[in-house]
Amino acid sequence: MVPKIDVRRLAAKKQYEGELEFSFDAEEELLDLPYVHFASPVEVRLGYEICADESVRVRGQLAFTLEGLCSRCLSTARSGLVREIEAVFQAEPKEEEYPYSRGVVDLSEFLRDSVMFALPSRLLCPSCEEEE
Questions:
Q1: What's this model's pTM, rounded to 2 decimal places?
Q2: Domain around 65
Q3: Which residues pair with 87 in a beta bridge?
Q4: Of 54, 48, 52, nearest to 103 (Cα)?
Q5: CA distances from 1 to 10, 25, 37, 41, 111 (A)
Q6: For the chain, how many structural domains are there in total?
Q7: For residues 93 and 99, is the Cβ–Cβ distance under 8 A?
Q8: What is the DSSP letter of 26?
C-alpha cells in the first residue's frame, strides 16, 4: 500500500521533514516487454520536506526486480533495478510538479510514473549483456 503524506497534520505537529519506507505491487500493464513480469514488489525509501511555501519535496530511491525471457535469445533473464527519484508536490502545481489537495499528498501517480520511467527498453540475460 502506498502511504499518503498528511501535510496539515504534520505541519500542525511541526514535523516538516520525515522518511517513508514501504513496498507496493507495481501494475503489470506498465510493462511493455513481452514475457517479462515484476518478480518482486517495488521497494521505496523516500525523504520528504514540507517547505514554507507549502510545497512538498520528495526524494529517494525505488528498487524492483524484473524476470522473464531475454529480449535477444529468449533464455531466462532477471534484472534488479534501482533508481533515484524526486518530485515536487504543490496545491496549485506548475509544470513538472504533482498536485495535492485537501492537505494530503497522494504518492501513487508519482510512483507509477517513476516505475514506468525506470523500466528498461529490453531485458537481457547475462550472456547477452556480455556481448553488448
A1: 0.91
A2: 4-131
A3: 58
A4: 54
A5: 20, 8, 19, 11, 12
A6: 1
A7: yes
A8: P
